[in-house]
Structures are given as structure tokens and as C-alpha cells.
Amino acid sequence: MFSQLLNYRGHYKTSDSVWTKRAVVFLVLLTASWGFAQSSHSRLSGELQGRRGGNHVDVIIQYTVSPEQKHFDKVMGKGGAVKADLRGAINGAAFRVPESALEELAADPDVLYISSDRPIQSFTYSNNPDFYEQAVFAQSAWNQYSGSGIGIALVDSGITNNGEFGNRIVYSQSFVGTQTTTYGHGTHVAGILAGGGSNSNGANFKKTFVGVANGANLINLRVLDQNGASSDSVVISAIQKAISLKSTYNIRVINLSMGRPVYESYVLDPLCQAVEQAWKAGIVVVVAAGNDGRDNSQNTNGYGTIAAPGNDPYVITVGAMKPMGTPDRSDDLIASYSSKGPTLLDHVVKPDLVAPGNLIISTLASTSASLYTPSTMVPTNYYNNLGNSSASTAYFKLSGTSMAAPVVSGAAALMIQKTPSLTPDHVKARLMKTAYKNFPQYSTATEPTTGQTYTSQYDIFTVGAGYLDIQNAMQNTDLASSTVGSANSPTVTRDANGNIVLVKATSVIWGGSVVWGTSVVWGSSVIWGTNVTGQSVLWGSSVVWGTSSMQGYSVVWGTSVVWGTSSNDASEATAIETGGEN
User: Fold this and answer.
1) Is 390 a catalytic residue?
2) Pairing label, strands 360-363, 391-398
């Protein structure tokens, strides 16, 4: 699942749901001169430009300096009110302001950018249960490592402890007030991360459901409501809290199984800036890619659908694989709903890697949870020799990139327990280099409800650097540069002949040595050699977008972002989250 800052099911979604509010078409034109010499108009995000009515709007204002009380007073002097002080994560805060004040507030030379406080949701998709821990060789580490002593901040819909987590939920805070209804997404993600398997362990059980880092401590930061929805400012507040608690609980990993559409470059996006601050504070940030890989509403075949903040080059962005109901990874396939790169506007190569995310059985918060439906129920006799076909009250299944992200977060915790000195860039680089890279060129999947088929191509924008391999990652001793950002995901561009090529930057490790060469990290099957200037040419680019006269080409490679009516509407988002894919 992928909670889109609503729960990739709707608004701020989790990786298991889908963008829902796309009926209105937004066109954001971003000029090349959006630096510090901006006009007041260009300091407003596209959806705020031209709004001068009498209504109030929720916004996030980022400043070029750390804002002081005088900056807040100026906003309040224009009839605004402070919603959330976000200075612990970004140089800014969330406000509610009159539309009529937007242009004047943007004219302040200390203002960098004003954007809407956008909705976010989880990314869940849900069908037959799969063997995620075997597929990524998690058991190879469990004799020595469990993530013990490592704190993982779970920014999600909250965790209900049904006995699976013992006393390892060391801190809890809700940023959405008291919720009378349980959503269920956060507890499921927590089970994948750090479930202890207490409800499926013993002589009568044929399958025990344990998390990848089943000894790690959990910092429970609730940002999604009972519908899986949230907003930028709420999620940023939780990230800010995780940063402030880093030393207290040894928080080394943040898991974000959620996101929302991309509205501007990551350089200006407040949500992206918040995750960067966490990364720079020494916390590995793992983000679900999104569940829009089937979206062809812009004729892109699902390319260019990576959600924010997964579009940020610092973070580890994770797509979803299907373990196919077997413990052997050789038959595993990409989930057709898994969002694909490159990122809009910035053309960053994403996802960074893929992990199991389809039909994953994990911890059930409550039988009254919103996501607990007939399609997500698991029969007790699936894992209990003494059970029957009645639905389990301890576990259920969900699907989506929301489920894939915590597999990688758990792997990061194991690596850090083994080698506490690892930086976020060290972890990211090792995970990408050691990922399994043997894939078919294409695969076809069928949507269980509609019977519609989807064909996936295994290129760099679909599977990234490959399929998570915990055993290889734990054994690897290669160290990337200790410079923050040295493992930033690269960007791509088009050369004079129309080839899609990787852009080499001197500040990052990729391609800079034999150890971190492009073919080593991404595999020779997606790197087809070099052009005349020595740039790595990627496989499959002409198949994906066709010629420059086609709509999909301009959407992926243009300088604007267009949101129309998505082919993945609310009902399909829910179907993905709760039904998965065959």
C-alpha cells in the first residue's frame, strides 16, 4: 500500500491507494529562473496563482532564512493564522491565509515559495498471500541481527499493538487528534517492519508472520486519519518530531508509505525539503513510489508517475514486486501498478529499487479497521494447523508500494545494527549495488476484478537498481563517500540523437569508479553502452514514449506538470490496496 500523504488511496495517500482528486486539471508552468531572483508571482505554486477572492486557504510558506516571529507577525497582520511551526524540518510554517493576501505575502523578499498545504494518502493495493521475507533473503540475517536497539519512525495511520510488538512501541503521538475509527494501514506496515509473530508462533502453526527487523523499536507517529488521509503540514510536523527524537530513541530510519502528486521541483516542494532535512540529520528515509504504474491518462504508459516525496533524489524510493506465492525469487514479477520514473520536472531516476509488496500478510489492528474487508481477510487455516476457513482476527493482507517500503526500511535497520557507523548514503548505495538484477524483459499481469491485462517493461524506471537482497547487502563492505548526498539518485536527459542518458555529476558516486559504476549498480541489461560523449545510454526509452510529437513525450520531458483525470480512480485505488494483482 502506499499512503498518499492521504493514503495512496486518495488524498495524501499511502502507496497502496491511488490519487483520487484529479478531476480538476491543473497546469503548473515553472520557469527556469525560479532561483532567488523570483517575482512574487513565481513564488506562488501554480494552483495559488491568480487567487484573490475572499476565501481562506491553507498554505506552507518557505523562507530563504530561518523565519522569526516578525515573519509570523507579518502573516498574521494580513489576516492569517499559524497552523504549524515547521522550523524543525524546513525554513517555514503552515498558515491559513486570505486568498487576497497571497500576492502581497509572496512579495516579501524573505519568502522563497508558497504552496498549498496539499492532501496526502497511503499507497495500498490488496490478493493471494506472498512470501516476502524469503524473496529478499531476510532469514539469512536473523541468526545475528533483528534490528535490536534501532529506532524506526513509522509516519502512518498509527499502530495498534495486538501483542505483536511487545514493549517495542517506545513512543506514540497523533498529529490528527483522536480518531474513533481505526484505518489499519499503519499496523499492517508496522508488522512488516517489526512484527514479532506472537500470534502465529508455536507447534500448531505452519507459518509465522514476523517483520524484517523484528527486534527494532517503533516510534509511532500518526498522521493519517481513519480514511487514510493527511496533509503536507501534518506529515512535515511528524518528520520534524522524528528528527527531534533521533538521539532519544536512536531513530535511524523513517518509513513513509504515503505520498501525493508532484506539483513542482523537489527543490521547492516543502515535503521533499523535510525528508532531506531528516536525511541530513543522519536518518535513512524510505518512501513508497506510488501505485500509479497503470495510469495511462497522459499516454505515458505509467511512466513519470512517481509520487512526492519519493521524487526527491536523497531518499530511497521503493517499487513493488509480486513474490508469486512462492519462496523462490526467480519467478517474482513487477506489480503493474507500481509507479515508474523518471520523476516529473526533475527527471530523477526512480524508483531506486523494488521489494515485495503484493498480497502481503501482516498484522491486523482490529476487525473494525477500515481496510479489513472480505478481500483482505486471511483464513485461519492458511497458517494454523488447527484452524478453519474462518477469517483470522490477527492478520490480513494488503498490497501496494506501501507494503514494499517497510521491507526496505527493515533491511536498513538490520544493516545499521550490524554497522552503526553507516550513514544514510552508505545504506542506500549498498542496497542498490547488491540488489538482484536478473529480470525478464517483459511480463504481463491481469487485474483480478476487470480482467484487464497490463504489460510491464523491466527498465531502469520500473525496477531501478533491482530487487532487494538483504543477504548480499549485509555481506557487502563497500563504502560510498561519507559526504551527505553522495548517493543521490541520478538524473536523465536526452542527447542530440534522442537517446535517454544518465547525467553524471561529480558530487555523487554513481559511475565514478569501478566499484560504483553504472552497470555495476543498475545492471548491464538496462545500460546499453555509451554515446559519443561517454554518457550511459538506457534501454527501452524509444519504446516507452515514442517520438517528440506524442503527448506522453511532452508530459515526461516537458517543463510543466499536468494533472487530469487519472485512469486510477478511487475505486481502482481501493481495489489495488485490498485486492492486489495476480
Assistant:
1) no
2) antiparallel
